[in-house]
């Protein structure tokens, strides 16, 4: 009995040794393969560099971004889509020192939908695809009906950005929430998360897809639009970069929209071009934000539909037929 | 001396009889080829539907801006849910020392592997730009539940695969000498996959260690996978999704659909593979009880999920509940809740209903209802957002799944069936060595008495 | 012409009785005239401006396709609008009322006259009168200047206007002046219109929440209200009159909504640790399978050795 146990122990010991040595072998192999691949990669890389130098075909003169004329070897000249790169970098950074804010005066809206049309024209959207939409609203049975333009609220705590898996939609330092359709994977989680239903998806080939094909993608305009990706209101990031008011704001015939920089405490009316103090405008008119209780901290303020200058008319909702491609 | 087990006559005798019973079904016969052929043909049609979707965009589905998640996401949730049964049976019951799950554990893992493997594909079919799937890993945001979901589903799939494979190793070794007349590639595969298993004490010990690690690891993983899936909804501020109990609500629901799926598979193997000796009435009786238990837990979470908002009737919860309880979705809602949950529980309390055939029928209804339950969780909350849906074509306001969408969904189901078929036709569906040991020790007990 | 005007005024007075809210134009504005003659150029410029700013409500002149609003905006080609004098038309477009927005900050005087020119092109019987020469300045032959200063203790801006003549410098008195702060999209008016006093000074109250840059600086510009009389003298001055504002980037903090690299640390750590732990266990299990393989191989070879021996 004892003998058998002893025999078993020695056998166990032997197996242990076998496992141990095989493990050592294994680690050695892993180490060797690792070292070899590092060395190989280094050799290939240095060879590549050497070849590149050896086959130099002279130099060319190139004008740099900061207007210097420099000489570089022909081989090192790479064609890059400069425009796209610049547009992407500046578009993701945003404009320093700004904090854009919009004020919508509901007492002045008569559902002219000029904001909608101007926006759709600028962003190449179909009549029923919206970055901004004017809605017929009624809070409760005994309160009046009114029209409400609804752009993206560019929240400071944006639920849509929180859920994006790939940084395709993001917030910039100036407060604008943008969408990069070069990055978007089309999961539509942001649409599910947005309580304002501010986002749209390209369910089919976008309207101007064919004509826009060659254009460099402008992240601040979201043109060309792309099938299978999200699009949304951009606060006309391309326009505000040039110090002009957003498309919707300047298209309104009735003075509904104010737009400006919160840091300046001033907003400008898109119709009358009058610039007023933001805090006075909000205070004097009892401004509010949509669904404050959700904690989204919108950058769009609404002035209540008090003393409305246009009457509400029933049955102005648009009916569209879906285009099929 | 080294091969300590199967060294008695009883063991050897039992091993022969069990292995011949179970390995009888490991073969590529006409039935298998025809069945796979039919599946492949059907799958080709579904793949064709998907190519149309790829070319024309997701507009070929009924999804639009208001309801932007539909059948695909419901199916994804359903698949993830069903795959959770692997954890319930092997791990929760296994670690608790429940003996009767032995012949069922592998079936549960087959279900888990098949559904988890395809769940990821279903998500891809819902993506507007499936070509950008690698972006999730290249630019992944830690804050997004999607990154977690993708990670956890992948990990869960791997662990489930291991949980299926490791207990299979001894069987492969037993089977590799008993596969006369099977195609050469199968024998070679068995040779390779049995990793020199000779049933030595030492190997058994290592296998037990590996299994213990996996059985513990799978518990947090399974909870993570379905909790994260529930968070895809619960982390959004929408009425109907904005719920704090979504995690446990989803997990308890997952056990219901998974158990139902296992019961269906058990019945199929018992009848088709003629395994009633191992999948006895007693096994059905017991798993029937499990189904009743998990269903009751799920009913409890349902009551919480609907009663609490129904008591307070906050504006948008009220709209959502009205649509479910008496409105547009009432038929579906009540069918799912009553036929798929309440009535099965009542029936399952009756002993006669826990016999194989009635249990199969109940499970089939429960499993179907489970899919519709996911549909009800996913679709209705999107139809009534906080702000009205206006000035859009009529198709944009109401979600109606299209033929293409249905075909693609069926495609994923066909893929699941194909995986299950391959796993259960090319490999033993029941653990030969465990069952032989069990029968031998039972016989040994008898002899002693 | 006078007679017609008088009749028009009487008609208007009558209509005041009929409609409670008749749009009254100040007397001194009614007779105002364009400083240039209307021709095809002014008409086409006017049409462009009209299409952009007016057409959405008033429609195309002559087609009566104006919007159905209360009160109706009216078709500019019809008598309802054509009976206005040039000065009245100019005033109404400039100041706006009720639903009609003010175009004071949108259109310059010249642009407003171009619009009038376009509207008049629909009136066959219209004959233009215009003021060929700019009315003589209040300070003929002088250059008019102004400066702006900040009076910090009183929190006011002080504007001083003067005219330099050959005979010497005199203050510009009784002139309406306004001042504006330059903002991104326009000029923000400060206080109200003021009239310069005997010393040529006007005092403007600085509003309470006037934001400046990080030094409190704002660019202030001053202008005469009646530029026909006092000229277009203006002065842009940078003054430290504002509240110091330090712009803060909105994406500075780690947050759930910020980009991946700005995720809260705990969520990054949980993810990375979770993945590492789970996958190291999986690797351990894979190594265990390898151990099974090695053990089997070792024993097989040991046994075959034994048999050989």
Describe this structure in words.
The complex is a heterotrimer of chains A (325), B (449) and C (309). Chain A has 325 residues and is α+β, with helices and mostly antiparallel strands. Chain A has 9 helices and 13 strands. In chain A, the strands form 5 sheets. Chain A has a 5-stranded mixed β-sheet with strand order 12-11-10-3-13. Chain A is extended. In chain B, helix 10 (201-234) crosses helix 11. Chain B contains 18 helices and no strands. Chain B has 449 residues and is mostly helical. Chain C is α+β, with helices and mostly antiparallel strands and 309 residues long. Chain C folds into 3 domains: 2-120, Cytochrome c-like domain (Cytochrome Bc1 Complex, Chain D, domain 2, Orthogonal Bundle); 143-239, Sandwich (Immunoglobulin-like), CATH 2.60.40.1940; 260-308. Chain C contains 9 helices and 8 strands. In chain C, strands 1, 2, 3 and 6 form a 4-stranded antiparallel β-sheet that branches. Chain C starts with a helix and ends with a helix. At the A-C interface, helix 1, helix 4, strand 10, strand 11 and strand 12 of A face strand 4, strand 5 and helix 9 of C.
What labels would you give this structure?
heterotrimer, A: 325 residues, alpha+beta, Alpha-Beta Plaits, 2 domains, two-stranded antiparallel ribbon, 17% strand, B: 449 residues, mainly alpha, Formate dehydrogenase/DMSO reductase fold
CATH top level label of the largest domain in chain A: Alpha Beta
- Global geometry of chain B: globular
Largest sheet of chain A: 5 strands, mixed
What is the number of independent domains of chain B? 1
- C-alpha-based Rg of chain A, rounded: 30 Å
Structural class of chain A: alpha+beta
The CATH superfamily of chain B appears as Formate dehydrogenase/DMSO reductase domain
Q: N-to-C SSE series of chain A? A: HEEHEHEEHEEHEHEHHEEEHE
Structural class of chain B: mainly alpha
Care to count the β-strands of chain B?
A: 0
Mean pLDDT of chain A: 89
* CATH topology descriptor of chain B: Formate dehydrogenase/DMSO reductase fold
Radius of gyration of chain B: 23 Å
Q: Name the chain pair whose interface involves the most residues.
A: A-B, 57 and 52 residues
CATH architecture designation of the largest domain in chain A:
2-Layer Sandwich
- Please count the helical segments of chain B: 18
**Unreliable spans of chain A:** none
